[in-house]
Amino acid sequence: MITMTEIARLTGVSQPTVSRVLNGNTAVHPDIRERVLACARENGFQPNILAQSLAGSKTHLIGVILTDISNPFFADLVKYLEQEARRAGYSLILFNSHYDSAKEQECLQIIRRYRVDGLIVVPVDEKAALWQDFSKKSDIPAVIITRRIPFLDSVYVSHEEAGALVAVHLYEEGYRNYLFFGMPEDEKYQGFARALSMRDPAFESRLTILRSKDSDSLLPRLREHFSDAQAPTGIFAYNDRRALQLLGLLKTLDISVPQQAGLVGFDNTYMCEYLYPRLSSVSQPNETMAATAMERLLQRIENPDDREIRHCPLSAGLVCRESSRRKDI
């Protein structure tokens, strides 16, 4: 790969002049600038991003930290983030925290070494002290996506409102027993429970919460729930992967869907259309969320003195399919 020194020799100009041209300095005679750029193009010159960052120049790199890249929802989100970044002349560096707070901190340390121009994060825990510390000490512009942190720019869907949508749908479809697959601390559950309590004050006596992801542990809990259930059960899983897991376990137990159990997932990933029955799921506006987050981050990068914290709540929708529609039977 050709170097700046070799470009200087081939074009007959000084190495500092080559450096100024290739770093975007326009205070160079147009003829010389074009000669340098043409030589660089013809010889496939690639800038040393790390060297540029050490010199204080922009790297045109944006770090992205996700909690689980194997989740199709996040893969879809990254596709739109990359699309928006590329339009603005930036590239992404992708990190996966595996829902591990220690790994998340490690990702942040690596990102600082890369000297990225900005950061987009799906946090493991938006309430963690890590983010308050980050907001006070870090000079990297950052936007939180899919979650809300009060002291950082955030683009998100209200999980509580989405959970309420699921509750209303399952209740209106005639389900009077309930099952939530996830943690009760999750805002999805809180919205689900709040909406149910308004329609069925005694719902908690007919509710089962499944916390474990282990199928061997889930089977006996499901068997116990359905042995006592006197009415159809409405099930809300915190994402589509867990809904798919439950669909298989229900089949193992010979529980019919949606007659005995209505199932709703979260994220409306591509797999929902290819299951049998097709899976109802909460849909998030991924493309809009990615575009909004990238737009705000670029504003932060270009205006480092802008201290205003902005929150951009977006609306989710419930896509109802055969897995939860009893009225269509």
Keywords:
12 helices; six-stranded mixed beta sheet; 12 strands; single chain; alpha/beta; 329 residues; six-stranded parallel beta sheet
Structure description:
44% of the residues lie in helices and 17% in strands. The protein is of the alpha/beta class and 329 residues long.
Briefly summarize what is shown.
Helix content is about 45%, strand content about 15%.
Based on CA atoms alone, the radius of gyration comes out at: 25 Å
Give a count of the beta strands, DSSP E runs of length 2 or more. 12
Through-space gap between termini: 66 Å
Instruction: List low-pLDDT spans.
Output: none
Strand order, main sheet: write it out: 2-1-3-4-5-11
Described by the principal axes of the CA atoms, the overall outline is elongated
Task: State which percent range the strand residues make up.
Answer: 15-25%
Mean pLDDT: 90
Please count the helical segments: 12
Q: Find the structural class using helix and strand composition.
A: alpha/beta
Helices and strands, in order, run as HHHHEHEHEHEEHEHEHEHEEHEE
Largest sheet: 6 strands, parallel
Bin the helical content. 40-55%
